Amino acid sequence: MTGTHKGTSITRRRAIAVTGGTAAAGGLAIAGYQSASADGTTATAGGTATDTASASASTTSGSGTCVLMSSVTEGPYYLDGALVRKDITEGKSGVPLTLRITVRDTTESCAPVAGAAVEIWHCDAWGYYSGYTTANPGGSAPAESEDGSTADDKTYLRGYQVADANGVVKFKTIVPGWYTPRTCHIHVKVHTGGEKEDGTYEGGKVNYTGQLFFDDDIAEQIFELEPYSEHSGTWTKLDDDMVYDGGGASSGLLTLEPVHKKDPSKGYQGSITLGVDPDAENSGAGSGGGGGGTPPSGAPGDAPSASASSSASSS
Fold first, then answer.
1. Peptide bond into 227 cis (omega under 30)
2. Is the separation of the CB atoms in 1 and 126 below 8 Å?
3. Per-residue pLDDT of the chain (315 residues; tens, 9 = 90+)
4. Cβ atoms of residues 80 and 86 within 8 Å
5. Exposure string for 147-168, b = 16+ CB within 10 A, e = fewer
6. C-alpha angle with apex 301: 83 to 191, nearest 5 degrees?
7. Is residue 17 left, alpha or beta, with left meaning phi > 0 and alpha meaning psi from -120 to 50?
8. Element (H, E) at 223
9. What is the Cα–Cα distance from 83 to 95, expressed in whole angstroms?
10. DSSP helix/strand/coil, 82
11. With contact defined as beta carbons under 8 Å apart, do 137 and 125 qualify?
12. Could you give the count of Cα atoms lying within 13 Å of 207 in the half-sphere of its Cβ?
């Protein structure tokens, strides 16, 4: 289960302090959901508006409905300097997940945002984040690494992809595990205006910060498999999560299709469409929205950071 370090490192790190509360609406985004098939075609899975104040701004484009939604907190486990790469696993074991994200422009009738940089990060099958492996995921889980002195230097399950002409990026990863008190989720940011440099993405601004979620029934099936089952304890369901607000697709619930219907260990194809205003800015940093879900022991401040003042506190 220990991730393989491929000589990569994050040279600029920061940890963001977050607090509990309602998600800030600093940046608006639209979310339509599509299920990705093996040949790359898509079929609409729907989406309904939950923000009544913004419902009139919803637009329809092609086969999908664009639904406005607000950004939420980036959480306490963000690190600067993620690598531009499609495969972010770095040898981490878990149920394979191919994640397809489409970025569209709310100001241009859901036109694709070619060149947008989509960044994702999430925990491994036991609930550990790279860079924060001293944080206890709750319950009973094996140690992330036999060599604790270098565990926080790893960069697994973090990365960028730059959208093609259709606004699409694809990631090869694994389904995340869980940690107390959060449900199964993936963090996401959409950046525009920057460029690839030294293997990462530099400059520009963050237009959207959000989190993507997994259906409870699917998560439960996965958590019964190895290596997830080696993490024992009680995991949080969607209804009890501090960030997910129950809005289904419009709140970040992924459309998931099994690679093999009778064998969840073969993996899933997940998809979502995120719409952004390229002129807006919302990093999720310091917004206080939603809380990041710090594990019960091992605060993120124990992890490396750019400076002492940038370390995070428990939320």
1. yes
2. yes
3. 433 333 344 333 333 322 233 333 334 444 443 333 333 433 333 333 333 223 223 333 333 446 555 688 899 999 999 999 999 999 999 999 999 999 988 887 889 999 999 999 999 999 999 999 888 999 999 988 656 566 677 899 999 999 999 999 999 999 999 999 999 999 999 999 999 999 999 999 999 999 999 999 999 999 999 999 999 999 999 999 999 988 887 788 999 999 999 999 999 999 998 888 888 888 675 443 444 555 444 544 333 332 222 222 222
4. no
5. eeeebbbbbbbbbbbbbeeebb
6. 35
7. beta
8. helix 216-223
9. 22
10. coil
11. no
12. 24
Alpha-carbon Rg for the chain, nearest whole angstrom, is 18
Angstrom distance (rounded) from CA 298 to CA 33 = 36
Tokens (6 digits) for 217: 């029934």
Query: Which residue has tokens 């899933």?
Result: 268
pTM score, whole prediction: 0.76
- Please give the single-letter amino acid code of residue 226: E
Tokens read off for 118: 């989509």
For 136, the token pair is 């206890």
Among the listed residues 133, 125, 35, 127, the one whose alpha carbon sits nearest the alpha carbon of residue 89? 125
Dump strand ranges (E) for 114-233.
117-121, 158-162, 168-174, 185-197, 200-213
**Residue 52's closest CA among 243, 249, 238, 247?**
247
Return d(Cα 247, Cα 260) in angstroms, integer: 28
